[in-house]
Sequence to fold (182 residues):
Amino acid sequence: MDNGVYIALLRAINVGGTKKLLMADLRAMFEAAGCTEVRTYIQSGNVVFRADPALAERIPELIEGEIAASKGFQVPVVTRSAAEWSAVVSGNPFLAAGADPAQLHVGFLAEEPGTARIAELDPNRSPQDALEVRGREVYLHFPNGTARSKLTVDYFDRTLGTTITIRNWRTVGKLLAMAGGD
Fold:
């Protein structure tokens, strides 16, 4: 599924009121950077686009810089190729174990953490919840919802030493479909 299609995830825009970014402006930023077939999904920074691999690798830096320059705030950007995204979907250990898809999320990491960092994650931090790190993803199962979970972006950022942005399973599936996957 290597078709020059990529998915970019922006963390924490249009959700708390302080980091408003119109999706039309976001699409324009990607197009100005040289991307084509730019599409967004919902108002929380999910972008599907086409680019050559060299450009796609630079997209986080380019888009983060443009947002900082034009909007005055910092927003982390994490990208995956369509092929990587497809592997994320097919590799969900909780789905394979029969978990309700409505209770599943995936955390996408900017960098793959080392084994020492992963070992620092406390499996009992949020006893009702479960997590599994696989490469640059953290698969999450929230049987009681996310509102009271102690598995937060701040916890993962601090413990794993990299940036994370989390999407629910429905969004993960929708982005796969938009990227031309199953």
